[in-house]
């Protein structure tokens, strides 16, 4: 569509803004900007108003205890997250409303009403208790995108056992380290899952992981792929989900949890090789995701909401499971890949279920842009009324394409910035209010004090700097599991009295925020957070590798791609066989998401005189840029050789 293309380019150049239509604004939950003022005047009263919409066994004594950098929310309050996400809706007309619509990769459908969810969660909560799981015991969940995943999470929440969900794409070794760090006593997994038409052997991975996990007592296995994958069940340890559920009693009293009791741990990559267990607690987390889901997605009773994220990531925790269910909304879960069986799959799902609110990642949008209109035009997307984006910066071209081709210029786009640590959306438009600029996440959510600061922590009026948050928010992480020191060091030490996000951002003359990406050694590959150090550790773990330095190279589709510079041990020859072996080694150590796109063999890595690897230089080489300052380099010849060899080649 060349005409449309021209129009998009024109709009970007014009720096055009997009206001919600009158129709959208008039029907929106938030219709004017007074909410920002109200929240600013008293953030505590603002958050309290949402907490009051939830169910509490005992009301809080104080909204907030803030002893920087430690916050406690709704202090003294008692509630249960599963009660709020399920029981609260079953005594209302929502009882028979679809809570979860599930679409399997093979095309199967399963719809769980709130009553169905209530029954399954209660039964599984009793199964957990029967297996000896008590309040406070950690449960690791390693499942594909099937209904048993949210059922297991909610059952854990019901009995007060914190869950630790591990993305199904992670390797056995990653699973081992997450089980051991959290000291989980139970693992919930499946025989397998479907991905792009093939079976992912989850139980096999789990068995491998479990050779080195002394705390695990039992494994519950969901039968998902059946005959397609042979599984071995270890006697006395492994139990089938369906056997356990057969005789489970139908009701389990929800545990009255303290507002600050642990709800879940979720591991994410940091600047070191070891993933961090991000700790989220009960009352504040639920209030935060409840409020943001309601206002950012402007949710209505009749909406069919679809967030395409896997529940193994934080987006799935907050905005596939807890936010939508706390609001009594209908949330759609899709098991598989966007390309399976063809590239029309996402849009066929939108048409099939009449999706009204759609939330996805820029990488997916850019893929669809590339794949063209043929499949898109086959489907009726007229039910859509609101679009969302998350996980990485969205470039204005992709924003415009999304706006024109998916939203048909009718749907506002909410570009939402947040992190595993923040638990909830912190920077976002409010769809009925905010004038949108393509590519900008716009403004902080009401009640959130975000700023862009310089090296010294001084606020920048207009321009580029570090993104920080200056006041506490209810769903903020409380600590890093088992490592309270690292919590302070990672987030509260770079600038005094401010939470450092690790991102840099630009504030324009109108106060709009444009997130530019990470300033640290964390990569963002297709919206997935991967640490350079983790990939480096995986590489040097291979017997042929002497040293490795990993960088994220700009990539049009994925945001960043992984490039590894590697030096080999004496006498080892570099060839394509070794190259494949090294890539496979990273997959084995971490998972397919961390597979390097390119590996470059070099005799030595460029280092400063003090021995630090100069990653910035390597990035310049990989991206074919003019080299920056090399004066501190120990051996400038190393760079020259690398540049001569690779500097201009497509990598
Ligand atoms: O760099 C930012 C980027 O993703 C990082 C957080 O990653 P994770 O904890 O995996 O959570 C992802 C989903 C919430 C951030 O530090 N990021 C997230 N959302 C955006 C974003 N970058 C730009 N724009 C966004 N909307």
The main sheet comes to: 7 strands, mixed
Extended strand count: 29
Q: Treating each run of at least 4 consecutive H or I residues as one helix, how many helices?
A: 20
Cα gyration radius (Å): 24 Å
Structural class: alpha/beta
Name the poorly predicted regions: none
Spatial arrangement of strands, main beta sheet: 5-4-17-16-18-19-20
Distance from N terminus to C terminus (CA atoms, Å) equals 31 Å
Bound molecules: adenosine-5'-monophosphate-propyl ester
Put the structure in a nutshell:
The chain is an alpha/beta fold and 651 residues long.
Description:
This protein is an alpha/beta fold. 32% of the residues lie in helices and 23% in strands. It contains 20 helices and 29 strands. The strands form 8 sheets. It has a 7-stranded mixed beta sheet with strand order 5-4-17-16-18-19-20, sandwiched between helices. A 7-stranded mixed beta sheet has the order 12-11-8-6-7-14-15, sandwiched between helices. It is globular. The model has no long low-confidence stretch (mean pLDDT 94). The site of adenosine-5'-monophosphate-propyl ester has 22 residues, from α12, β20, β23 and β24.
């Amino acid at each position: 569509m060349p005409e449309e293309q021209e129009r998009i380019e024109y709009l970007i150049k014009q720096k055009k803004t997009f206001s919600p239509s009158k129709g959208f604004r008039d029907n929106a939950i938030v219709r004017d900007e007074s909410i920002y003022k109200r929240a600013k005047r008293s953030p505590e009263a603002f958050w309290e108003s949402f907490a009051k919409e939830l169910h509490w066994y005992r009301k809080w004594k104080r909204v907030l205890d803030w002893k920087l950098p430690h916050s406690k929310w709704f202090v003294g309050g008692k509630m249960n997250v599963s009660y709020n996400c399920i029981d609260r809706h079953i005594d209302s007309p929502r009882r028979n409303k679809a809570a979860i619509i599930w679409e399997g990769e093979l095309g199967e459908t399963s719809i769980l009403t709130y009553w169905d969810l209530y029954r399954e969660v209660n039964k599984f909560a009793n199964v957990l208790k029967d297996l000896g799981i008590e309040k406070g015991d950690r449960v690791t969940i390693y499942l594909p995108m099937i209904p048993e995943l949210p059922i297991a999470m909610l059952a854990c929440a019901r009995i007060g056992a914190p869950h630790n969900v591990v993305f199904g794409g992670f390797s056995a070794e990653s699973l081992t380290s997450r089980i051991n760090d959290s000291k989980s006593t139970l693992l919930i997994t499946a025989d397998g899952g479907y991905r792009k038409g093939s079976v992912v052997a989850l139980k096999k991975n789990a068995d491998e992981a479990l050779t080195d996990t002394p705390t695990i007592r039992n494994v519950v296995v969901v039968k998902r792929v059946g005959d397609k994958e042979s599984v071995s069940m270890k006697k006395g340890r492994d139990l089938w989900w369906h056997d356990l559920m057969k005789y489970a009693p139908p009701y389990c009293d929800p545990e009255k949890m303290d507002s600050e009791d642990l709800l879940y741990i979720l591991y994410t990559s940091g600047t070191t090789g070891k993933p961090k267990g991000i700790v989220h607690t009960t009352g504040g987390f639920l209030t935060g995701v409840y409020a943001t889901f309601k206002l950012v997605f402007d949710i209505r009773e009749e909406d069919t909401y679809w967030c395409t994220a896997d529940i193994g990531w934080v987006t799935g925790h907050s905005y596939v499971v807890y936010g939508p269910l706390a609001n009594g909304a209908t949330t759609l879960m899709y098991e598989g890949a966007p390309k399976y069986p063809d590239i029309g799959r996402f849009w066929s799902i939108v048409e099939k279920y009449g999706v009204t609110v759609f939330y996805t990642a820029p990488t997916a949008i850019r893929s669809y842009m590339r794949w063209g209109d043929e499949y898109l035009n086959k489907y009726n997307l007229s039910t859509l009324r609101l679009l969302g984006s998350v996980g990485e910066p969205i470039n204005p071209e992709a924003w415009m394409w999304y706006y024109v081709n998916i939203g048909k210029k009718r749907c506002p786009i909410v570009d939402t910035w947040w992190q595993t640590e923040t638990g909830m959306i912190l920077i976002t438009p409010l769809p009925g209010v905010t004038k949108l600029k393509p590519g900008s996440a716009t403004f902080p959510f009401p009640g959130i004090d975000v700023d862009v600061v310089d090296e010294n922590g001084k606020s920048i009026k207009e321009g580029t700097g570090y993104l920080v948050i200056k006041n506490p928010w209810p769903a903020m992480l409380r600590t890093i599991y088992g490592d309270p020191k690292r919590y302070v060091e990672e987030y509260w030490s770079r600038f005094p009295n401010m939470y450092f996000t690790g991102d840099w951002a630009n504030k324009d003359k109108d106060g709009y925020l444009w997130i530019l990406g990470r300033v640290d050694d964390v990569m963002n590959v297709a919206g997935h957070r991967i640490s350079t150090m983790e990939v480096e550790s995986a590489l040097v773990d291979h017997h042929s590798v002497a040293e490795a330095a990993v960088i994220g190279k700009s990539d049009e589709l994925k945001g960043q791609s992984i490039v590894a510079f590697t030096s080999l041990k004496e006498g080892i020859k570099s060839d394509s066989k070794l190259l494949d072996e090294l890539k496979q080694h990273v997959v084995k150590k971490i998972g397919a998401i961390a597979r390097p796109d390119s590996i470059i063999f070099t005799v030595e890595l460029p280092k400063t005189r003090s021995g630090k690897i100069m990653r910035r230089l390597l990035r310049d080489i990989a991206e074919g840029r003019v080299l920056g300052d090399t004066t501190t380099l120990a051996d400038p010849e190393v760079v020259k050789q690398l540049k001569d060899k690779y500097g201009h080649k497509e990598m």
